[in-house]
Amino acid sequence: MMKGLSLLLSLLLLPVAASAAECLTRGTGDMGIVVERAAGSLKVMDTSAHAELFRVEGLGDLSHASAVYSRDARYAYVFGRDGGLTKVDILCGTIAKRIVQGGNSIGGAISQDGSLIAVSNYEPGGVKIFSAEDLSLVADIPATRVDQEKLSKTVGLVDAPDQKFVVSLFDTGESWIIDMSNPQNPAIQRFTNIGKLPYDALITGDGRYYIAGLFGQDGLSLIDLWHPEKGARLILKDYGKGDQKLPVYKMPHLEGWAMAGDQAFLPAVGQHQVLVVDHRDWQEKGRIAVHGQPVFVMARPDGRQVWVNFAFPDNDTIQVIDTETLQVIKSFKPGKGALHMEFSPRGEEVWISIRDQDEVQIYSTRTMELIKTLPVDKPSGIFFTARAHQTGL
Amino acid sequence: MMKGLSLLLSLLLLPVAASAAECLTRGTGDMGIVVERAAGSLKVMDTSAHAELFRVEGLGDLSHASAVYSRDARYAYVFGRDGGLTKVDILCGTIAKRIVQGGNSIGGAISQDGSLIAVSNYEPGGVKIFSAEDLSLVADIPATRVDQEKLSKTVGLVDAPDQKFVVSLFDTGESWIIDMSNPQNPAIQRFTNIGKLPYDALITGDGRYYIAGLFGQDGLSLIDLWHPEKGARLILKDYGKGDQKLPVYKMPHLEGWAMAGDQAFLPAVGQHQVLVVDHRDWQEKGRIAVHGQPVFVMARPDGRQVWVNFAFPDNDTIQVIDTETLQVIKSFKPGKGALHMEFSPRGEEVWISIRDQDEVQIYSTRTMELIKTLPVDKPSGIFFTARAHQTGL
């Protein structure tokens, strides 16, 4: 009898106990994920305790993976290179839902109100928009046809205020504003001839300016989303590959632009320089000599420092620039494969992925000293939950 | 036997069930609190569902109460007028800890790293700093002595980057930077003669400029925290009560300044105007005629709109200003006692407290239409958890 009672109790208690053990009751404001690109997994982190909470496996090909967060900061939506879109529950360390939505995907965005997830696809070219709740398809927007066989690749997809997305078409040189305020009837505004081969884009933190980098010519394409009637215009006409003396190891990420006060800091293409641009008129106002070809140029949230990492063969180095004096105030070598950086939302710390050492390093931005190292398998992108509250992230 | 088993099961299951019922396992990114000023209570809200989650009572005198959030966005620290400091667990709807730390308090701040809570007190005048964990006292910093009986009141307390707080001394016309990077040994930098009777202050969102309003003279006192060696200087020398033709019903809150692009929007003192200031040189560049004496002048997070509420007898009205054309694009009367506004972090909605109607109204900022009304007893301040990630909020 006691054995039977014991078994009965176990069965009755199991679901509750399991649920309590697996999911955390805690605030999500200080959490984040680190992508393990080779393993197709990610680690869920507690940024206050500097500690790992969960490892989540089975996310497919995570090379160049990126992520956005639900508005409650409980779910990370991870965009894989293989077209996978995975909704990860960071309180339970589980995959809430996973679909393979395209053949070859390069990023996504979440709508202003958090209800929609958009993904841009190379293959087949276009944008698919899903319900953030269950990843069911809401809209399938094919890109412009290039020839009988294929549609243009789509790149540089971002969210914008008033429930919009903006995306560029690589092959056909277009940018589209997709208004999803009526999800059953997407309204698309098309800008053609924006420049040759847009390969990536960013939106400024206030959601006003959409800027696409061009692979087929120098300069960048800018759209003022407050004035779409003015069309796209070319800015920074000297920005690009031009007559490079050095081989371009990697086209820099545009999302890695830093905006600090009236200045924008941009990675020069193929040169050992960071460009300083006045973001009121988008004119270049200076260049800062740095250690290698910059990849990410990231501003500390208060705009007082800019941290820079570099393309191979200089990807073992990080430099810190003072945004007022424009001087490099610190150079150090955290290790080979320093791929990505993420600041804590109020800027007191920065986390850096060091791929070849299988670790994430955490630095104080005040002392610029190493605080702690956490083991992570081939870490790449780091994404903290405060992104849930920011346009374009 | 079955009755005994049933009782045994109930007893065994009780703690788990109770715990599950009381505390929520959910993301905290889309939560917020609304202060019920008369009842000394607050309501915990789900901003995605537009629904109440908990009502928490027993917080003392909450007239002019304000709140900050822990870095994990689980706990709200509520500063009451009566010197009460209450740590509220918004996942469980309970008071985690409450102390009465002073006789008469007017606000507080949380340190950049989230470890310290600072409170400014009228009586006795000074700043007390507590552990965010258990509210134990870490530092007690008395204000400058005014006479044998009393110390200066402290006002305008804010957090600043690099683990600092900044506060002003009403009676003695000072501002202090308190560096808490070594919590056992606060380092204080004192600025004297900053102007007569500072009554409130703000810090810009990037944490660079600290600006104190002056009750005893016109103008505002500005400290550039990147250059404290330059001292405090007077800006906007025409800003103030001056020769007012109208009685000043309420000194406007400085935290209600809106920064949008290069412009700052300020409530004029005692006049039916919003001032437009170039925040690069702090020169006035225009005035916008509005419906009454403005109290809060709040920018939508993308800076495209500014929403304004007004002092008695015009506190039944809200106006919306387009920051580009500087035109009032919408005026409406949501009800008497429109005391406070809070935008969702990405700006799609704004919540407005309507005290005399015992309700909070939720508006779409795109359509400017009412979406929903929630019952709240004499609502005043509204504070969403995204503040956890912002300097000065």
Could you please describe the fold and organization of this structure?
The structure is a homodimer of 393-residue chains. Chain A is built from 1 helix and 32 strands. The radius of gyration of chain A is 22 Å and the shape is globular. A 4-stranded antiparallel beta sheet of chain A has the order 3-2-1-32, with no helix packed on it. Chain A has one helix at 2-22; strands at 31-36, 41-46, 51-56, 66-69, 75-79, 84-89, 94-100, 104-110, 116-123, 126-131, 137-142, 154-160, 164-169, 174-179, 187-191, 198-203, 209-214, 220-224, 232-235, 258-260, 263-267, 273-278, 283-289, 294-299, 305-310, 318-322, 328-332, 338-343, 349-354, 359-364, 370-375, 379-384. The longest helix of chain A has 21 residues, at 2-22. With 393 residues, chain A is mostly beta strands. Chain A is 5% helix and 47% strand. At the A-B interface, α1 of A face α1 of B.
List the topology elements:
Two copies of one chain form a homodimer.
Chain A: H1 2-22, E1 31-36, E2 41-46, E3 51-56, E4 66-69, E5 75-79, E6 84-89, E7 94-100, E8 104-110, E9 116-123, E10 126-131, E11 137-142, E12 154-160, E13 164-169, E14 174-179, E15 187-191, E16 198-203, E17 209-214, E18 220-224, E19 232-235, E20 258-260, E21 263-267, E22 273-278, E23 283-289, E24 294-299, E25 305-310, E26 318-322, E27 328-332, E28 338-343, E29 349-354, E30 359-364, E31 370-375, E32 379-384
Antiparallel strand pairs in A: 1-2, 1-32, 2-3, 4-5, 5-6, 6-7, 8-9, 9-10, 10-11, 12-13, 13-14, 14-15, 16-17, 17-18, 18-19, 20-21, 21-22, 22-23, 24-25, 25-26, 26-27, 28-29, 29-30, 30-31
